[in-house]
Amino acid sequence: MKTTRAYAQSDRADSTVATRDRILAAATELFLEKAFEDVTLAAIAKASGVSHQTVLNHFESKAGVVVGVTEVLAEETFAARAARPGDVEGAISALVGNYEQIGDANVRWAMAADRFPELSAQLGVARAGHRTWLATIFADSIPANPKRREQLLDALHAATDVYIWKLLRRDLGRNRAETEKTMAGLVAGILTGHSP
To answer: DNA-binding region located at which positions (predicted)?
Structure first.
């Protein structure tokens, strides 16, 4: 049977988790909307309805918040990119759908990474996750030979990178369907040119 003290400790733990989640939700929204350098701990605190010190208590620094935000986005990205292995059109549709949500922020972060080491490290994790997704989705088409495998994954990574999405959607003004068709064509061409 729980004592009053045990209930109080449980309530504090629940409150701590809820506060952390609220901070991460506010920080994620800010990072998706603004340039990396424009998101401050003070802005995160204000958006989440807590004090600056509370943000520091949970994350220690902006770098700590960035790690938390990238973990949240990684989970959301994994769910958003669910596709049947080997289904090029389905995979690209899921990928572009994810880019429609976070692509602009991805590009901003990538462009700022040289100036912010904490951001650079997280982008490395994201790139590795993207490569793992490619290896899983297109596993049946990937050669066993390690050198050829890496070449194919490099080509697939280039064809599906957020910069390709940005080029098509933002720079060239293509709509989502056109973007998906072009990216799927690039991937299909790469897969056709490499036999396992």
So the answer is: 40-59
Token reading at 81: 């990119």
* Distance (Å, whole) CA 33 – CA 79: 21
Q: Residue 122: how many CA atoms within 13 Å on its side-chain side?
A: 23
For 38-75, write each residue's pLDDT tens digit: 999 999 999 999 999 999 999 999 989 998 998 998 89
User: Cα separation of 40 and 47, whole Å?
Assistant: 11
Within a 13 Å sphere around the CA of 137, how many CA atoms are in the beta-carbon half? 28
SS3 143: coil
For residue 92, give every residue at least 6 positions away whose Cβ sits within 8 Å of its Cβ, in sequence order, or none.
160, 180, 183, 184, 187
At 1 the pLDDT is 52
Q: What is the pLDDT of residue 11?
A: 56
Q: Phi/psi of residue 61, each to 5°?
A: -165, 175
Q: Is 106 left (phi over 0), alpha (psi -120 to 50) or beta?
A: alpha
Q: Is the pTM of this model over 0.90?
A: no
Mean pLDDT value across residues 138-154: 95
Alpha-carbon radius of gyration of the chain: 20
DSSP state letter for 168: I
